[in-house]
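WARN retry 2 of 3 for item q-0093 after timeout on previous attempt; input resubmitted unchanged.
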Amino acid sequence: MDQDGQENIHRHVLANGTVVEHAHGHGHGHGHTHSHTHTKAVLNRLSRAIGHLNSIKKMVEDGRDCSEVLIQLSAVKSAINNTGKVILQDHIEHCIVDAVEHGDTQALLELEKAIDQFIK
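OK item q-0093 returned
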């Protein structure tokens, strides 16, 4: 629950488009809240990757050399993978630590599924 007693729903969109959700409400009465410390950095990284991908789309529209396009696509893939690593680190440091403290095995199962999809 957040500071106003509202339940927080956390959503993760996997590479294949699957949305994984879990609640961040704490029904154990301890009143603890947590936040993701890297959210702004993740949003900035995603914005840069989107901008880069749009520029690659323009390269294709302009008939640029396939090798150049592939190199740029590789850079976007790397940026997305690195962003995923930041999200995973943040998730483990906050959500999973909290889940372990409260015996939330469902969150651990969801993490396992998300990692399986992420590393495919």
